[in-house]
Amino acid sequence: MELGLVGLGKMGGNMRERIRRAGHTVIGYDRNPDLADVSSLKDLVGSLQGPRVVWVMVPAGAATQSTIDELGELLSPGDIVVDGGNSRWTDDEKHAEELGHKGIGFVDCGVSGGVWGLENGYALMYGGDAANVARVQPIFDALKPEGDFGAVHAGKVGAGHFAKMVHNGIEYAMMQAFAEGWELLEKVDSVTDVREVFRSWQEGTVIRSWLLDLAVNALDDDEHLDKLRGYAADSGEGRWTVEAAIDNAVPLPAITASLFARFASRQDDSPQMKMIAALRNQFGGHAVESK
Ligand SMILES: O=C(O)[C@H](O)[C@@H](O)[C@H](O)[C@H](O)COP(=O)(O)O
Q1: DSSP designation for 103
Q2: pTM (2 decimals)?
């Protein structure tokens, strides 16, 4: 089939390639003319035969919103927009409604797999009406990993991004657990080769996993991670997971702690620990360290 793809960065560029390898036609647009097949969104829409399917793969938030707004002006009734970015699930219903007024269908799709997706396939979690999902199915089939799993119609509009958000919450907590275990192993004198302990865990253990394999890759590049600063950014999905947990009164201690650990990583000195030190000093005369 024919697909319009907006956003040809790290994810979109490789997805274009994987979909083409499966024999489909992809016309890609990106603000960077070096990456794009056409020079504008208008050209993209004009070069697709109707009914069209346009996949949006741009950063969540303002960039996705403005792309969907523009597509709403350019597309025709019967066309479909797929949001494959890491959008907040609450935006999906709004987008479905706005486009729905114009007769344009909407499907949300969480995509996992990062830079490895071109070769390994992308795990897909999508939400929307069955009829709209069916129209996009050949593209989902081209992107998904080989094998029986790796793609799911998770439910109605928003369900795909909600499932991907929870996946990312789990990702936070799993990474935090590997990171904490690694730090403890590095700290003690009795363990002389932490990297080899991690490597040995890749087979036979309860915790063998792709994240563990990637941790071993990272340690092979830089055995004690000396080249890195202990600073971790976040793109929002961990926060949204915690917000959803609060809205639904579901306890998420591990995911919440892993999100807060990232916040702590961005402080050179901890203001709250200054207060703890000050209070211990006030009530107990305990020693403090000065700057
Ligand atoms: O499943 C994936 O392929 C990843 O989760 C991917 O979606 C991305 O790397 C995260 O969004 C990073 O999220 P943070 O910046 O919040 O760590």
Answers
A1: T
A2: 0.95
Does any ligand 1 atom lie closer than 6 A to the CB of residue 209?
Answer: no
* pLDDT tens string 223-268: 999 999 999 999 999 999 999 999 999 999 999 999 999 999 999 9
Q: Which of 95, 129, 157 is the last residue of a domain?
A: 157
Asked if the structure places residue 284 within a domain, the reply is no
| Residue 79 CB less than 6 A away from ligand 1 | no
Find out whether the beta carbon of 113 lies less than 6 Å from any atom of ligand 1: yes
Q: For residue 114, which atom of ligand 1 is closest to its CA?
A: 3
Count structural domains, the chain: 2
Structure tokens, 233: 């950014």
258: left (phi over 0), alpha (psi -120 to 50) or beta: alpha
Q: Which domain holds residue 20?
A: 2-157
By most ligand atoms within 8 Å of CB, the mutation choice from 83, 175, 237, 243 for ligand 1 is 237
Residue 236, Ramachandran bin (φ over 0: left; ψ between -120 and 50: alpha; else beta): left
Do 152 and 195 lie in a common domain?
A: no
The reply to whether 276 falls in a domain is: no
Residue 23 sits in the same domain as residue 83:
yes
Q: Tell me if 114 CB under 6 Å of ligand 1.
A: yes
Residue whose pair of structure tokens reads 């979109």 in the numeric block? 12
Which residue ranges in the chain fall short of pLDDT 50?
none
Query: What pLDDT is stored for residue 180 in this prediction?
Result: 98
Does the residue 274 lie in any domain?
Answer: no
Atom of ligand 1 nearest to the CA of 238: 16
